[in-house]
TrEMBL record:
Pfam families: F-box-like (PF12937). Residues 6-54 form the F-box domain. This is F-box domain-containing protein. InterPro entries: F-box_dom. It comes from the Eukaryota.
Amino acid sequence: MASPPVQPWVDLPHDLLAAIMSRLGTPDLLSGGATRTCSAWRAAARNPLVWRRVDLRDWPALTSVGLAAGAGAAGGRIPVQVALCRVLEIAATRADGRMESLLLPEFADEEHLLFLAERCPNLHYFSLPATCMTDNQFCKAISKFQSLKGMAVDESLINHDVLVHVHQCCPMFLELKVFALYVDEEMASIICNSLPHLRKLEIPNSDMSCAAIITFLDCLEELEYLDISGYETSSISSTVLRKASRLKIFIWSSKFELGEFMDCSNCGEHSINPQQPCKCAMEHRVMDWLAGPSQSS
């Protein structure tokens, strides 16, 4: 029985090749993964659809010889800031105005954001974890992103003036992610008052007060998605759970899984560590101690 004919990879339809390429990481597309293949695969790697979503968060060094060659440099190690500029130039060129989402590495700064504003004004979402950026430069870039729907930024940019500017310049803005160590009621109020139409809010790995969570739930009437997972101390109360029941998605589990919480049968308070009982239990122990030893003992 004759074996079925083998189809060469080069004969894959271009749209299927482009779909495959879109699943490759940006480093692979730029530093050898696609350039070492046949002309059909290299052409697919340059399809604008492949560059709609660019993720550079885990870029290792941005100083490899492969990157330098891909960016048209002579080779050798180059500063990370310069390397990232070259990567963004390549990505913007290949996306041909169709880039929708870009996730930047931690060392990205306002220069890179301003470049994106000039080259990719139709961007829908960006992530910029940089902690040092002036409000003026950030707002200058935001003014050009009129199609922006969401962003992920450091808590240093969470202030009234910046967020109101976002609200005024980006009428379709619905999604916010904040990299913050601590969120109190004041910061929550700033977010709610400046961006009242938020539908998706993510503040993971942050120590957050119960008052802040309730502020989000009470004031953001259009909110559908809230992610406050990863915090180290629980602020989840029965009131929070009741108010959050209107959301489509509420993610609050942390390293303390739901099953590990101990509930006091008297006051309902959560105790993350069973060795540290709630206030109610402590008061009972103090009263027992003051009463002295039991008559029956």
